[in-house]
Amino acid sequence: MRTVRFILYALCASALVGIGALVFMLKSHPTVEFPQPLQQKSANGVRTLFLGTSSMAWTDGQTTWLVDGFFSRQPLSKVALTRLNVDNSQVRAVAAAMFKRLNMPSVLGGIVVAHSHYDHSMDAPFLAKEYGAKVVGSESTSQIAKGQDLPSTQIEVLQGGGQVKFGEFEVRLIQSAHAPTGFTGGFNTKPVFLPAHALQFKEGISYSFVVSHPGLGPGPFALIQPSAGFVEGQNKGFSVKHVFLGMGGLGKLSHAYIENYWREMVLVPGATHVYLIHWDDFTQPLMKQGEPLALKPMPKLLDDFPRSLELLKMFSERDGVSLHVLNSWEMVYF
Ligand SMILES: [Zn+2]
What we know:
The chain is an alpha/beta fold. The chain has helices spanning 2-27, 76-81, 88-102, 118-121, 124-131, 139-147, 255-267, 305-319; strands at 47-50, 56-59, 64-67, 110-112, 135-137, 155-157, 162-166, 169-175, 207-212, 220-225, 242-246, 273-277, 287-288, 291-292, 322-325, 330-333.
């Protein structure tokens, strides 16, 4: 009897130690050294404000539009254990601070959604309703918008890719691929009603975005790659100066994969400036009590940001390309 009790105690103790270690690993973030903030060019020209993951607000002083706009960033315990809902007050607070930083009125011309996982798609329909935008993306993303009752006039499906205009901006959606993380694939074929578990948001199609603006010349000037995946040859036929490069999950992938990703996204379009995005732990908020917060890298258990950063630094030095880790609330001027 005593032996059985001892074994039970031992099992409970080791389970607790295991859970404790797991929680510890999920809460330990590697440190990042941020370089000098970017030089400010013209406060009134084309600019983009980075807001964690692949959320970015773009404006030319006339029209403001978003990539994703995922601002809820629920804590890990909520993501793991509960069904998620849009955090209305947090999303409104981040959006208000965003418009203020951009020095723009609270109006959105549109929202392009990178793919349909919750950390890209969940808040877009809410933002579209609040600020009068349309949501542009895949059929899967349209089911998330329908689940939140966004009118069909505010949903545009560009399933295989295509072009959309927001004021003078032109954004081309190219069918790309998700980083091979083990959470990929699947389509939302019915409306995704909230609250919904994170895993109910199926990937759908993953896009790259190619951005043009007549104020910056006739061709495109920026490529946004939200997820660290690629389709070989997807960027042939155009060149850009700036690439916003998604890093999520990259640290756990092979050296060869990371080098191919760099080639397809940076060398093929001939970019000279790379800004790293989607490297952060999106279970950490962008603001607390009205104050903006800095980002933290993904915990080591889920990603290895120091490793992928080191490799990308090596490639950037080899190829003479500038590399910048974007922090939240940081603005890039063109
Ligand atoms: Zn994803």
